[in-house]
Write a structure and sequence with these properties.
Elements (H helix, E strand, L loop, with lengths): L1 H13 L1 H4 L6 H7 L17 E6 L1 H4 L9 H11 L5 E6 L5 H6 L1 H4 L5 E7 L2 H6 L3 H17 L3 E5 L9 H18 L2 E3 L22 H21 L4
Parallel strand pairs: 1-2, 1-3, 3-4, 4-5
């Protein structure tokens, strides 16, 4: 708990700067985010099923090479285990839940999208935005994905302590309520075992370094792989 508190305190400074960057259009966001590669083809020539990672700087891999961001590490795990799936990095630094909702349709225009990794909310918490608004935005993303028959993996986050324990508790509960109400696959805290550990984070104390991102990828893979298998992944 102490390391989590330290991480959250540093996050107030480290990610607040990222939040001010979000003034771009979807087209601008596409340039700002790590560029997604062209859809890879299966042996039979058809496009592979997709996993879209929709998130902020933690998904975009701020401070890392594209190949070091967790979506790329998930792609490596898929390839190593013989899954013919493609992971698309739709992370944009500074995104709030509202910004993510605004570019959702753009993010899902990637062909045969089967799974959405939803990692948003950190910048809402850093700005102290109303948790009800965040819940509404995330809920709308989930509903739109499910309307397309896209399964959702919800990655939870924690709010910084400077807005008080009531806000932090309400913020945390948003993810738990959404996971329960929509019966989602749920990772309660995406930065588990990484937050507050200086050797696993960049100099800003919040964005994971290469080693930390590998742990994040392992955490997400544990939740993601059963979803792929359930979807008939191969």
């Amino acid at each position: 708990m102490r390391t989590l508190t330290v991480w959250l305190g540093v996050a107030v400074i480290a990610l607040s700067g990222c939040g001010r960057q979000n003034t771009s259009t979807p087209a601008d966001n596409q340039r700002a985010a790590p560029a997604a590669s062209a859809p890879a083809a299966s042996p039979d020539g058809s496009n592979r099923p997709k996993i879209v990672a929709l998130g902020d700087s933690l998904t975009a891999g701020l401070g890392l090479l594209q190949a070091q961001a967790y979506p790329s590490l998930l792609q490596e795990k898929l390839d190593q285990d013989g899954y013919s799936w493609e992971v698309v990095n739709a992370g944009v630094s500074g995104d709030t839940s509202a910004a993510g909702l605004q570019r959702l349709e753009w993010a899902l225009q990637e062909g045969d999208v089967r799974i959405l990794i939803l990692e948003l909310g950190a910048n809402d918490g850093l700005r102290g935005l109303p948790v009800d608004q965040m819940k509404t935005n995330l809920g709308e993303i989930i509903e739109r994905a499910r309307d397309r028959r896209i399964a959702v993996l919800l990655a939870g986050m924690e709010a910084p302590p400077n807005y008080g324990p009531e806000y932090a508790s309400s913020f945390r509960q948003v993810y738990r309520d959404l996971a329960h109400d929509y019966r989602l696959t749920f990772v309660p805290f995406m930065l588990d075992k990484v937050a507050g550990v200086s050797s696993l984070n960049q100099s800003d104390g919040i964005h994971p370094n290469i080693e930390g991102t590998q742990i994040v990828a392992d955490t997400l893979w544990t939740a993601l792989r059963p979803m792929i298998d359930a979807a008939g992944g191969s």
